[in-house]
Amino acid sequence: MSKSTVTLYGLATCDTTRAARKWLDANGVAHAFHDLRSDGLTKGLVEGWVNQLGWEKVLNRASTTWRELPETGKAGLDGEKAVALLAANPTLVKRPVLDRGGALSLGFKAASYTALFA
Fold this sequence. Notes:
single chain; 8 helices; 4 strands; about 15% strand; globular
C-alpha cells in the first residue's frame, strides 16, 4: 500500500499507538502518522469516524481526559454532542484509529492487523 492510503491516528505517547506503529514498520506497511494531540482533529474527520464506527466506540470513556471532564460535559451525549466533544478534546478518541483508504478500525491487536493486511 502507498503511504497516502494508510494513516494511523493516535498519540505519540500512547503505548497502544506505539505498538501499532512498531507493527506497521516491522511488517513493511508504509503509513502516515497523525498525532491527535499535536496535529489536532477536524470536525469533519471526527464525523466520518463516528458515521462509520459509531460515537460510542470512538469515544474513549476509560481515558484520563474523560474522567476529568465535568459531569455537565458528559451528560446527555448523543452523536452530535460526541462529535463536538471529540473534536475539542482529541485525547478522548479511542486509539489508535487506523484508516486504510477509508476503511477504519479502532485499537490494536497484532492478530487483527495481520488479518487486515493479509
